[in-house]
Task: structure prediction
Amino acid sequence: MTLHPLPVFTDNYIWCLHDNQTAYVVDPGQADSVLDYLKDRSLDLKGILITHHHWDHVSGIAPLVAAYPGIPVWGPATETIPGCTQPLSGGDTIELAWGITFGVIDVPGHTLGHIAYYAKETPKGPLLFCGDTLFSSGCGRLFEGTPEQMHDSLQTLAALPVETTVCCTHEYTTANLKFAQAVEPDNEDVAKRIKEVMKLRDQNLPSLPSSIGLELKVNPFLRADKESVLRTLQSKCGERPANVLASFATLRQWKDNF
Result:
């Protein structure tokens, strides 16, 4: 089984999960790249998974459904997803062609109806498609939700097995790591990750996927309760955050203007 990120636009990734015949795509903001990839490998598209309603995640749905009539389009039940045939909420499950079951997790914050897809058992190990909720060394902006919602969503994802492969949908890692280093200048894992990502990006290779275990080491938004983070925020703001939620909210506001 192959897990492949298709780069589109400036920094989006459309994830394609496939074997030698059958494929599924996640958050296709554009169709041409998907259609070319499928054609080059003689793959049959069997379904589309959508995490949230933003245009750069849904604009490819209609052309793909036109090319592959009748395929299911899964998406969040509380958001308007063009062409969605199977609306989903947290606790629902979907089964792909290989008998792989993905559970649906509600992860509001970036948008109010945002969902993620998590499979505990795949040939790739535990697998998470998290849209714009969790990024490598970062998290999504709060366009619709609150800091509390996003923090809760991230904590849910952070509790998944450390070996879980994390498929984010934007190549934001380099910029996110600069912020992570500003938050934790002495974090050796962040320094190591910066070198790894620089090498990948110099070769025009994706920095993704990541893993839950790695994100727990280098992602400041999953480390809002760490003493090293709290010390930095106290130095920056003049007072120590009252609790982990205040720490998270301060981090998100700082990142918005970083």
About this structure: The chain is about 35% helix and 25% strand.
